[in-house]
Specification:
By secondary structure, this protein is α+β, with helices and mostly antiparallel strands. It contains eleven helices and eleven strands. The radius of gyration is 25 Å and the shape is elongated. The N terminus is likely disordered.
Length: 325
Amino acid sequence: MATKTDVLDDSKSVAAPPPPYDSIPTSTLSAKSVRHRPSVFSFLNIKQKIIKSLTCAPPSKDTISTSVSSAGSEKHTTVLSRIRDIVSAPDITSPVAPIVDACAASLSVAEFSDLLQSPNIEGHTALYWAIVNKRQEAFSAFAVFITKFSSVCSSDLRLACVATHNQALFAQLGLGYSNSKDEPLRRSLGCPPDDVQVHEGDGPGENQFIACIRIRMFRKRLHITRDLGIEFVAGGRIWMLRFYMGPDGRWRIGLSLSQPSFPVRPGIILLIEAHTKPGCTTPPQGVVMTYDKANLLVPAGSQRYTGLSNFVNIFWSLSDWLLYE
């Protein structure tokens, strides 16, 4: 089944995506500072000095502890400095992967993974800046050392995909809504991933998009789980399209905003194309639903936007035809 959602005008949105990293002044990115920073492996010199001091005179336990701690801190600082250069310095021309490998070799696997996923560069993660500054090679090199994104990192990646209008990466990284019932069911059915294609206007004032959504094995999955949802990035926001059973016992289609989206007054045209059976000469008629800009749609869980005319979910009630063959 395919769904098309057309948000016609959100030019009155309260804010814009975050500014590019290049607009943030950072003195550490000058060529001079890059040339004179210590090597990633400078901690080896510290280690050799510690060993030399041990052979000269038996140090106290406190001295050994302080030396090792200092060496570890300097390693961490040096690696972070290199990572910062990789995702932000404008004059990086050498291959990134060998540099990342060298940085990873100087820390434990857990330490390096945690460093990449911590908001330690202007309040964001290294992965965030790799996306925003279009450092694809760096992002791929970082991802090798991460088995699973932390919750903090996932939130930062969602924000990066919104800032860059990157639905393809959002889907590739699996950053969307995950239903605890639907995911194992989809794997058991051998169901391929749902597909979302987003087409956005790129001219001045063209605050609109068309999202074409294809949900695989729709009827079977909805009949079993009774709740199907899919998130996608479009128009500088994260949207949730959901099929579920309402408290009145009727099927509903809901459209809402997810964090960290800004509010919007959407004009919506929702088209559901009916399934065409093989050999059918007359394609069945689809269903069209609309919504005007009467109320402000706000992301769920937001405490900033209050008012009687605010909505966190727009929904349309349907009959049981959703489950008809």
